[in-house]
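For the sake of clarity, the format in which proteins appear in this thesis is described at this point. The fold follows as a row of integers, each naming the local backbone shape at the matching residue. One such record is shown here in full, so that the layout can be seen directly:
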Amino acid sequence: MKVLLVRGNPRKNGFTQYLTNLFRAGLLETAARVTDVDLAAEEYSLKPCLGCYHCWLVKPGQCVHHDPMERLLPVILETDVLVCATPVYYFAMSSHLKNFFERTFPLTTHGLETSKMGLLRNRLREPAKWGDKKFISITVGALRAREAYEPVNQTFRLIADTLHMELGGQLTRSESHQLPFKLSKPITLKRVEAAFLKAGRETGTTGQLSPRTMAEAALPLSPDEKYFCTYANIFWENAVAMDATNTNSAKLQKQVGSDPDILMREMARCINPKATARLRAVLQFDFPDCQRHYRFTVDKGRCELKFEPTSTPDLRVTCTRDIWVALFMRQLNVPAALRQGVIAIEGDKSLFTRLDRYFPPPSV
């Protein structure tokens, strides 16, 4: 199995790169022979198509440009599976990837025929070399609505049909700016990452993605539009406050991923109705170092979160933001924190020992 992986993402520390690397890692676990092409790299700098028909009329099959596409066209003809990865810009693929597809024009010739989708298309110059080729797309973007990804996914489906390739599957990852939320969504994000790895393995063995793998890769990271907008605003507020010059810097991702407004919202959202079915209590969490206060009012399986202090909670937990994150990550246990005096617990301490049961990590 020969696989051509074409990356159209200009940023090499972005979310498209991160997920495509996971896909590639799974791909390399198979016996597939992989050619990995980074269209944003200088060695693959491509000139734009001129629409001059030189490759049809003057020198059939040869572009007027002499650049890296000359060596990529034969690779396309030899490959069994073409995989294209791109961020979503204005509901479309990146300019790098768009230019790549425009430059495949020498692979076609004059004369029209009907495609499998029933559409007219240009004939392929060497139809015998296309055989059972498959096409897989990877699209990554910040928006949540699936409708924002349908235009580019439809474009990929049409491209596959135009080049007489079978669609092997489409990986669509929305809400990309929530990928750093590994503290508040550990289970979901592990499932997403595992899906991209599995997608690579499936590509390298069959060239076909299973419906389950595609669904796992696209798991929602926020329960609704309201949460999504709130979390997106928190992301950008952190970026502005840090004077971030790179939205994918490790420092910014760590800051956003451990933001208490997100952690506490997710904690309140994921209350366990069964474990708290008989519980009525007010839980107060105070982080004095960043002047944040969170009041959880638990009432028989339901939880209301307020961003304000209360003077008479059933349980009060006081610590710094970093200490709370360390407790979340199990990097610091409660007895050690109490001995060191870095966390203070007032009121019904039994409530604190049951927090994991009352507020388990979200599965989705």
